[in-house]
TrEMBL record:
InterPro entries: FAD/NAD-bd_sf, GMC_OxRdtase, GMC_OxRdtase_N, GMC_OxRtase_C. Keywords: FAD, Flavoprotein, Signal. This is Glucose dehydrogenase [FAD, quinone]. Residues 1-21 form the signal peptide. Belongs to the GMC oxidoreductase family. Its cofactor is FAD. FAD binds at residues 129, 266. One of its GO terms (molecular function) is flavin adenine dinucleotide binding. Residues 127-150, 303-317 form the Glucose-methanol-choline oxidoreductase N-terminal domain. The keyword Flavoprotein applies.
Length: 612
């Protein structure tokens, strides 16, 4: 054999591993249950069901409806797939806000709250990505209180009580903590992985011990009783974020009857004016307008901001408002009203004397990054920084009922832990508040106890700013317009102070960061009036907007959808997301949104004669 031929053979043998490795990777990628979803570049002209929005509820609905192989389902998402590197790391949740995967909403300026934020406005990050806000959130798995759902049922929404809905919480759940998975309130084997972060600071257990000292129990807040303290559980898997895209879409990406289209911005639902039937959606995709038809139904799961936005652009909303903007009215409905959100006093900070907190230089270093990206462990697995949750009673709450009115997010970090870089930017804290009160906390060991108002009486609204679909809506949350809301937050601040005085936290040298707010000091340091003023300045959204397409029976003039989530006055159109909540739940809203998606899928199957 000529020398050249021998060389060619040897070179071929030497290079053979490269194409083999490539083929192996492609085979693995194709069969990997957590591989990226397949996306359609050219959707069909008609589907049985169109789901608008692939977020916490929409991904669930599309996954469950496509279980029927006789139905073809189209899932439309305005954003793209979730970024792997940053979105995976739970502790870096705040870094995702105000990026390309965030709609970047802001509220209108307020006079009753957010006074210490830039322009007196609150930033409202909402996920523009497969998985929606479950890609941006802090991953906390909280279901709310039994009485929240029993109250929904009492409003005339049959089968929306707690005993009915527990089944749907459990249907999704794959709880990796054996001591919980074996109880009647949890389950294993579902799509959604739930577990504690695999790493924690010494403060995590100290927070729980502090709660016991002031009279509360360490308990499963998602179990039989809610009142108490608990190491936080989150939607994470092997130390990484488990979004609804990862949980519900990636494992079923081979289903030929589920088509996922990304970068598809739905502009409106097209509704027949005579028969009032929703028959198609208009979307912008790949630079051109497309109309896609639905044989059976269109399901809006675009979230508490975008679902009412799309409804109003489609002619479903307050008639006077739509008429002012020149939008033909299909159905006069209270769309955009009943807006509710959880808020907290974000400024309650405490110093400690020991190096036990999430100071940036200590946890965002090469060693922590290596531990996380190689082994899925270490400080970067903490759930957005939140280690412990507590549900407690203020003096305005009936302590004989297991229905606390204040939640605490207990965090081994403050706005100063990263020198005012990421957290301050994400929250929109003003330069004045930062410079005068919190800058001195830069890179110091400190922690936050954030009291959260669980059932605010203050309600706001969302309206169209323009009939142009690409102009964001007007968001007016009306935080703290009801005096009792402010009074409960004041009591929450005082409970946080009481926690810091327990022996469990005093052993670390815990003490209040007591630099006064210049705007409030005239009211007398640490009086109730002072704390109320502080809460009105450092008002933090907890990112839980809901209620803008209220579920209710036919006698409720404010109801937009019926108990089967069908839009009143419009055939073949439903809303399935946080918009439908009649009242906000007592806790973080991601798990309830996933539950709503699960229940809605069963409702739709029942209505179309498919076994559930």
């Amino acid at each position: 054999m000529p020398l050249l031929s021998v060389f060619a053979v040897l070179l071929g043998i030497w290079l053979l591993p490269i194409p083999l490795a490539y083929i192996g990777y492609e085979v693995y990628e194709f069969n990997d249950p957590e591989g990226r979803p397949f996306v359609e570049l050219d959707p069909l002209p008609i589907y049985d069901f169109i789901v608008v929005g692939a977020g916490s509820a929409g991904a669930v609905v599309a996954s469950r409806l496509s279980e029927n192989p006789a139905w073809n389902v189209l899932l439309l998402e305005a954003g793209g797939d979730e970024p792997e590197i940053v979105s995976n790391a739970p502790a870096l949740a705040a870094n995702l806000q105000m990026t390309r995967i965030d709609w970047g909403y802001r509220t209108e300026p307020m006079t009753t709250a957010c006074l210490g934020l830039e322009g007196s406005r609150s930033k409202w990050p909402r996920g523009k990505v497969l998985g929606g806000s479950s890609v941006l959130n802090y991953m906390l798995y909280v279901r709310g209180n039994r009485r929240d759902y029993d109250r929904w049922e009492s409003f005339g929404n049959p089968e929306w009580g707690y005993d009915d809905l527990l089944y749907y919480f459990k249907k999704s759940e794959d709880n990796r903590n054996p001591y919980l998975a074996r109880t009647p309130y949890h389950a294993a084997g579902g799509y959604l992985t739930v577990q504690e972060a695999p790493w924690r600071t010494p403060l995590a257990t100290a927070f729980v011990q502090a709660g016991i000292e002031i009279g509360y129990e360490n308990r499963d807040i998602n179990g039989e009783s809610q009142t108490g303290f608990m190491i936080a559980q989150g939607t994470i898997r092997r130390g990484s974020r488990c979004s609804t895209s990862r949980a519900f879409l990636r494992p079923i990406r081979h289903r030929p009857n589920l088509h996922i289209v990304i970068h598809a911005h739905v502009l409106k639902v097209n509704i027949d004016h005579v028969y009032k039937r929703a028959w198609s959606v208009t979307m912008l995709h790949q630079g051109r307008m497309r109309i896609i038809q639905a044989r059976n139904e269109i399901i809006l799961s675009a979230g508490a901001v975008s679902s009412p936005h799309i409804l109003m652009l489609s002619g479903v909303g307050p008639a006077e408002h739509l008429t002012e903007l020149g939008i033909p009215v299909i159905q006069d409905a209270a769309v955009g009203l009943n807006l509710q959100d959880h808020i907290g006093f974000g400024g309650l900070a405490f110093r400690v004397d020991q190096p036990i907190t999430l100071v940036q230089s200590r946890y965002e270093d090469m060693v922590s990054a290596f531990r996380y990206y190689v082994n899925g462990e270490g400080p970067m697995t903490v759930l957005g920084g939140v280690e412990t949750l507590a549900f407690v009673h203020s003096k305005y709450s009936n302590v004989s009922l297991d229905w606390p009115d204040v939640q605490f997010h207990l965090i081994p970090a403050t706005i100063g832990s990263d020198g005012g870089q990421t957290i301050r930017r994400a929250l929109g804290v003003s330069n004045f508040l930062w410079e005068t009160v919190y800058k001195e906390l830069s890179f110091t060991d400190s922690f936050s106890a954030i009291p959260v108002l669980l059932r605010p009486k203050s309600k706001g609204y969302i309206k169209l700013r323009s009939a142009h679909p690409f102009i964001p809506p007007i968001i007016v949350p009306n935080y703290l317009t009801e005096p009792e809301d402010a009074a409960i937050l004041v009591e929450g601040a005082k409970l946080g102070l009481a926690l810091s005085q327990t022996s469990a936290l005093r052993r670390f040298g815990a003490r209040l960061h007591d630099t006064p707010y210049p705007q409030c000091v005239h009211l007398g340091l640490f009086t109730d009036e002072y704390w109320e003023c502080c809460a009105r300045h450092y008002t933090s959204t907890i990112y839980h907007p809901c209620g803008t397409a209220k579920m209710g029976n036919a006698t409720d003039p404010d109801a937009v959808v019926d108990p089967r989530l069908r839009v009143y006055g419009v055939h073949s159109l439903r809303v399935v997301d946080a918009s439908i909540m009649p009242t906000i739940v007592s806790g973080n809203t991601n798990a309830p949104c996933i539950m709503i998606g699960e229940k809605a899928a069963d409702i739709i199957k029942q209505d179309w004669g498919f076994p559930t």
